[in-house]
Write a structure and sequence with these properties.
Elements: E1 6-16, E2 22-32, E3 36-40, H1 47-54, E4 61-66, E5 69-70, H2 76-82, E6 83-86, H3 99-105, H4 114-127, H5 143-155, E7 161-165, H6 173-185, E8 189-194, H7 197-203, E9 206-211, E10 214-220, H8 221-225, H9 228-233, H10 240-250
Parallel strand pairs: 3-8, 3-9, 6-7, 7-8
Antiparallel strand pairs: 1-2, 1-4, 4-5, 9-10
Helix pairs in contact: 3-5
This protein binds adenosine-5'-diphosphate and magnesium ion.
Length: 251
């Protein structure tokens, strides 16, 4: 396997919404294949807007490349087989009448054997503990249930690059733990935008802090998440798990 292949490159990306809000400005970073990057920052920092560029849902000024290939109108479909994005709001993700249809939907394009589709769908529903929701419609679900279904629709496709927007918000502790273990163990490339700095501490290898549309800091896990002053400047807090590990390290 080639070492250090770049999975994602973002070059001088800026995006302004039609109402004039500059959501991201001059963002550049790259992610190596298999690397786990956490994008942290306060509300309104531009994290979600940035993630929407990674699978071409938004197109700003600048360039986004997936495995070396710039995202264009022409290759969107191919790009989306490589990049799986779980939205912050599950209502943006789910559109089929039943949970089962939503989870199976993306597979129809890629897998032809009906039994294989059924097996994959059954497995991911079981992993997330939501088999009992299979026959329900989306409006019969709680927010946390919708979030699990959203995760299932993307994880079932096993995308090479997994992009998750606030993935633990609204999850119960058991589901959160399952997700963290999944993200820890997978060898896939992961990009997560999150407020959950304990999650960032557990799975992140590299951190970017965004604030007001810009990257204001970047570095290794401890360099960023152990820097109280830096975090507080951006409405963030040292993760509890970091502090616990420090105490543990002394005894
Ligand atoms: N559809 C939209 N139209 C106009 N402004 C938006 C829209 N979505 C987000 N914004 C604005 O863009 C900025 C970045 O938002 P967002 O990317 O959602 O931040 P974050 O995910 O870090 O909380 C905020 O100022 C927000 O109010
Ligand atoms: Mg957001």
């Amino acid at each position: 396997m080639a070492m250090n292949r770049l999975a994602l490159e973002v070059n001088q990306l800026s995006y302004t919404f039609s109402n004039g809000t500059v959501a991201i400005r001059d963002i550049s970073f790259s992610v190596t294949e298999g690397e786990k990057l956490m994008i942290i920052g306060p509300n309104g920092a531009g994290k979600s807007t940035l993630l929407l560029h990674i699978n071409g849902l938004l197109r700003g000024k600048g360039e986004v490349k997936i495995f070396g290939e710039p995202i264009t109108k022409k290759n969107l479909k191919k790009i989306r087989t490589k990049v799986g994005l779980v939205f912050q709001n599950p209502d943006d993700q789910l559109f089929m009448p039943k949970v089962l249809d939503d989870v199976a939907f993306g597979l129809f394009d890629r897998v032809t054997a009906r039994e294989e589709i059924e097996a994959k769908v059954r497995k991911i529903l079981k992993d997330l503990g939501i088999e009992h929701l299979a026959g329900k419609s989306q409006h019969q679900l709680s927010l946390g249930e919708k979030r699990k279904v959203s995760l299932a629709t993307v994880l079932v496709l096993e995308p090479e690059i997994l992009v998750l927007d606030e993935p633990t918000s609204g999850l119960d502790p058991g589901s959160r733990r399952w997700l963290i273990n999944y993200l820890k163990e997978t060898s896939r490339t992961i990009v997560v935008a999150t407020h959950d700095l304990d999650l960032a501490w557990e799975i992140g290898q590299r951190m970017i802090i965004m604030d007001r549309g810009e990257i204001v800091a970047r570095g290794g896990r401890e360099e960023i998440l152990g820097n109280k002053d830096l975090l507080e400047q951006h409405n963030l807090e040292i993760p509890l798990l970091y502090l616990l590990e420090k105490i543990g390290a002394r005894s």
